[in-house]
Give the backbone structure.
Amino acid sequence: MHIETTPKAEDVVACVRDAHPGGDLVFVFGSGCCEGTAPHLFAGYALTPGQEQVGVAGGVGVFADAHVRRLYAGRSVVIDAEADPLADGFSAEIPLGWRFVLRYR
Amino acid sequence: MTVARLALAVVFLCATAWAETAAPKTNARPTSGDRIANAARLVRVSGAHSPAALARPPGAQKEVPMQEYKLYIDGQFCDAEGGRTVDSINPATEEPWARVSRATRADTQRAIAAARRAFDEGPWPRVSQADRKKILNQIADGLEARSQEIAAVETQDSGGTIRKTSGDMMLGAAQLRYFAEMAEQIPLLEEIKVPQFPAQSTNYLQREPIGVCGQIIPWNFPLMMAVWKIGPALCTGNTLVLKPASDTPCSALELAKIIDQTDLPKGVVNVVHGSGAECGEELCTSALVDKVALTGSTEVGRRVQQLASGTIKKVTLELGGKSANIILDDADLEMAVDGSLFGCFFHQGQACESGTRLFVSERLHDDVIARLVERTKTLTIGDPMDFGTAQGPLISARQRETVLGYIKAGVDAGAKVAIGGKRPEDLPKGYYVEPTIFVDVKNDMKIAQEEIFGPVLVVIRYKNIDDAIRMANDSIYGLGGAVWSRDKAKALEVAKQMRTGTVWVNDYHLLSVAAPFGGYKQSGIGREFGLEGILEYTEVKHVHVDQVDNRASKFWYGALFGA
């Protein structure tokens, strides 16, 4: 599983970092329900033993559990960002009016 | 089919939704300075909008003015901090139809404080069980009286067909009446028989409300999910802050209007519309909140549990599913085929317990596929306000793109589309996706392992029953499932081996308010409905009443004072 990041997503990560100074940020993926395997950016997240780092996005470590690593084994995925005032997750970019999305090569 | 029959047939569930893929809306690259602009975009001042293009209520042709909804905090309908609002989009028209106050973290804190006061200082936790029953019935009465009106609100807000939302209103009222009845019936004080050594004593189990409950609900069954959360909390004397989904706040706020007209004390029920990252996070971390209940995705459930761990809150989670539906060789195929389509395509597949993996034997495979395709062709897709419509739009553009992304992933992996697979060509507006059936699916494909939350059924062949059960259980989820057979004993044996919270034999989606509902594995923690669900909203206190009555007989004090 190879992680790429769009410039827009990197900029949104920078905005989140401004909003969470000193925050310990990580990207994790949805486990394939409701929102699919969408990327979530969390501050102060407790990684589980099954989550392994699969890349870096905007200077933030990207972690995936075995389920997601198996789904995207050998593939490139791209973390992008979209403006979305109605996004409803707990991901840290949402209060800023953005939402991270995952695109596939 | 009448609404009443539909109400009996309909059941419903969960999930919040955030898309993993979607068409870009803007090419602008945000900077730190853009944050101000982003915030400004969220704040849309009332009056600056164009007339809403609304779906029509049955029989009506005229356009209805933009509806407005406010937060409900401490018995008042109020603006959000700074007057922040956001437009709710009608999924059938892609047009805004309501303007809703958008709560901030500070608004959520106000709501939590109101609920805390109502619990600590108000009468609600201490009123009689009969009074709780009376007030829950008042809410049910109000919902019944306005059921068609609120069904229309919810159809415009969620895209759920008017057939479905009408049933939801009736079921919601019936569920409130069950909680009303249980408010009076649940045993709040029970004697416990304990060994009468070393002391003679009388011992009681006393059930009490937990306190302030934070409740986060999804967009697929907006009113019913509110009832599922508010009902058991009020039944047992709790106070609460409800956060409806960002996409679908309006029917929950209509329910708040009904509640406001009852005898329920102010501040017991509060409704805030805002994002998970602001309002939800506050509910999960506030030291003033005693319990959090979420219906949503598994990853959000994990986040909720982590955030709630800081203050050791009680947590119940109702999460995702990829439920298995197994047709045995002796099944009544006429019933099993329609039941399987109902199990997957009801509400466009946007139900967490949907039977999205259909297991069929090699022997029946081709016959079942032919029948599934023929019956799917009869499903009408279109305006959800039309009682003739079977399939409405999905909730949002992001959900539609997510579903289309899954369909592409299925094709890329080698599965074949037997029917559907795209947006309907005759519906250029609205977030529609055709009901889609995949064949030649392997259970380890992405489309067989992930909850698509759209009208996508995957059909998987099995060699024998053990093979079917093994694949059915090969999932990180365990929420629903079904077995179809004329031999009920055989079906029950299969049901017993399925690692899942609910199994239907020869049916699907029928949940009962009196029976527990919840998930095995990563589908959740705790149960909703039934006595089990109600007790999730209680603390248990053990009361020991000494019957020895004199110091001299209490030899066990010798452990401290000596013999």
Summary: Strands of chain A lie at 2-5, 25-29, 39-43, 52-57, 60-64, 76-83, 98-104. The first strand of chain A starts at residue 2 and ends at 5.
